[in-house]
Automatic annotation (TrEMBL):
Higher taxonomy: Bacteria, Pseudomonadati, Pseudomonadota, Alphaproteobacteria, Rhodobacterales
Domain ABM: 11-101
Protein name, entry field: Antibiotic biosynthesis monooxygenase
MF terms (GO), sorted A to Z: monooxygenase activity
One Pfam family from the record: ABM
Keyword Nuclease (UniProt): no
């Protein structure tokens, strides 16, 4: 499970996928399979979560990596390049962006 903390020694990547409601479940299944079978087993992987909006037109993916180089190395593997080609066919667009946690808040 991702842990969000301002001083966490991880690289945060948030990827948004835009699709139609008709392809949302297919894309969610492809992303779930990619994480279960490949991404979560890559060096430097820490945790991830997938979020679907109510209209099923967007999926947001929050992932954490030990280092940005670990995330980039995973993207460059032949397997992930092939998976990303198939994922791209199911959505209008997707964009991974690296972030640093600027601040956190909780309800306690």
């Amino acid at each position: 499970m991702p842990k969000i903390a301002k001083a966490a020694p991880v690289q945060t990547v948030i990827t948004t996928f835009e699709m139609t409601p008709g392809t949302c479940q297919d894309l969610l299944e492809a992303l779930t399979e990619a994480y279960a079978d490949f991404i979560s087993k890559q060096p430097g992987f820490v945790a991830a979560g997938l979020h679907v909006n109510d209209a099923q037109t967007r999926i947001a993916n929050y992932s954490q990596w030990q280092r940005r180089e670990d995330f980039l190395a995973m993207l460059r593997t032949p397997e992930m390049r092939e998976r990303n080609r198939r994922i791209n066919e199911m959505c209008k667009s997707f964009e991974p962006v690296m972030y640093e946690v600027a601040e956190t808040f909780d309800g306690n």
